[in-house]
Structures are given as structure tokens and as C-alpha cells.
Amino acid sequence: MWAKKLGSQLGRPTRSVGGWLVSKLFKTRNKVLEERAVELCKIQPGDTVLELGHGPGLGLELAAKLLTAPTGHLIGVDYSEYMHQMAKERVKEFLENGKVTLHHCNVAAMPLKDSSVDKVFHCNCYYFWPDLKKTALEIHRVMKPGGMIITTLRHSHIAILAAKRVMPGENWRPEAYMAALRDSGFTDVRMEDTQHRNITFQAIYATALK
Q: Which residues is 192 bridged to in the sheet?
């Protein structure tokens, strides 16, 4: 029972004690993953960038500071109302000046135009997508030809949670996610070990082929 409840909060935190504890976990455990994902995206000042499952907004804040050109724009989506509101507070200044737009929605149905995004990043997110193929197709739809998506995770940690049945089904496996990307029009899909602040974790790369 506890594993199912924890998995539910990790996937969609609510305004509750459990959700609050998970938000604290995100801010500490996900910080390095967010930092590295933003770095690996090689964001240019005028890019349009999308973060999936932005959580409390750590990655949003980092990415927004790099979009210094007038055309630079950052979009964040999360289907947790709690995380949506928390992120709004964190990037309030960027929302007010129009540099950032946030959507409270499902990643599989985003209110974005076709071929409108240069770079996409997310961390500790895809495990909770009920339909990997459907979601990957939606991501591919909004990305420009040649656009890059970066996914960061600590596979060893996720495998431990999966063994305790915190992660739902088999979607936590990188192989399942990477297969969905390939089947949805992405190319050069690969996973590599990387390091940041003496912590080893994994980065999954893919390019939108159109």
C-alpha cells in the first residue's frame, strides 16, 4: 500500500503532507539532474525550449536565464496542480515578462503548435506516462525537425524503487522509453553515463526526424 501511495505522489504530487515531502525530495534529489539536463540541451539565447513534468521549477529557472534573446522562450508543462502552482511562484518574474509560459496539462495532450520547439528536456518523468508511445508522438509533434530531447535519470535508484513496486508497470525501464522514441520518429536515440558534481547518472538523447 505504501509503495502505491508513494508512486502516486511521485507521479502527480498533491497539496498534502505526502505531496509536500515529495516536493522537498524533488528539490534535493532532482537538482543535479535538472542542472545537467539544461546543460546538455546546449540552449541558445533565441531557442524555444520545453520542459516536461517541470515539478517545483528548478529546471525552469535555470533554463530561463539562458534565453536572453528577444525570441528566446521557455514552456513548462506539468499535470500536477500543486507543482504547477509551486513553479509559478518560483519563476514569477519570468512569467510576468513573458519569457516563460506554463501549462497545467498532460504531456500527451499539450496546447502547443506543431514543430514549434527547438529543445526539450525532462528528468525523472517518463516512468509515470501511462502510454509511452502516445506521449512520445505528442512530443515529436511539437518539436522542430532536428530538435533534440534530453532525459536525465539515475537508473540504479529507479531500479530500486521499481523492485519495491513504487514504479508502475514496466515503463520505468529505459529500453521501453527509448523504443517508444524510435517508434515515434526520433533518431540517434542513445543512453550514456554522465557525471556532474561527482555523481554518476544517465542521459538519454534523441533527435526529432521529420
A: 203
DSSP 127: G
Cell of 191: 543512453
| Tens-place pLDDT, residues 93-132 | 999 999 999 999 999 999 999 999 999 999 988 988 999 9
Closest CA to 125 of 50, 63, 197, 200: 50
Pairing of strands 100-104, 73-78: parallel
Cβ pair 185, 208 in contact under 8 A: yes
Q: Where are the alpha helices (DSSP H) in 30-152?
A: 31-40, 58-64, 81-90, 92-96, 132-142
Residues 203, 184: Cα–Cα separation, whole Å: 19
Q: Are 101 and 75 in contact (CB under 8 A)?
A: yes
CA 150/CA 121 separation, integer angstroms:
5
**Which contacts of 167-173 are long-range, i.e. CB under 8 A and separated by 24 or more positions?**
167/7, 167/127, 168/7, 168/11, 168/127, 168/128, 171/126, 171/127, 171/128, 171/129, 171/130, 171/132, 172/127
| CA 176/CA 126 separation, integer angstroms | 10
Residue-wise pLDDT tens digits, 20-53: 344 445 445 678 889 999 999 999 999 999 999 9
Q: What is the pTM of this model?
A: 0.87
C-alpha distances in Å from residue 186, one per residue of 44, 134, 169: 21, 13, 24
